[in-house]
Fold:
Amino acid sequence: MPLEGEYEPSTSARTRDQVELYERTGGREGNLQVPTMLPVVIITCPGAQTGKIRKWPVMRVEHDGKYAVVASKGGAPDHPAWYYNLKAHPDEVVLQDGPEPFDGTARVLSGEEREEWWRRAVEAYAPYAEYQTKTDRLIPVFLVERRD
Structure:
């Protein structure tokens, strides 16, 4: 089910336009990250501070119907803003990979499970490995799973 509430588009025109195109075409367009041309999925979640509905594209890292969402921010010293949204609202997540979005839950991974998903993430998007070398923080990896 779609999340209820006021949608607040991203302040980034690129993000806002990509989400709109992806949703309007059911993922047939807007489904690649520029300039790598690798696939993305769309995450929807209430904002941590405002509660308004936020949407953003992330690299597609899927295995057995589950998705890793990597809070890399290009190796910056701080987490991306959306990290706090998922932490605050882990049970109010919608993930869209193609035409049909699904309700999900998100949790931050640790230990061996994180390492397994980190390897999958680097296989899907090699720059993640370089991003980790640029920062002192351990880049968080969320796992988004379908909610029953």
Notes: The mean pLDDT is 97. The CA atoms of residues 75 and 133 lie 7 Å apart. The chain has one domain: 13-146.
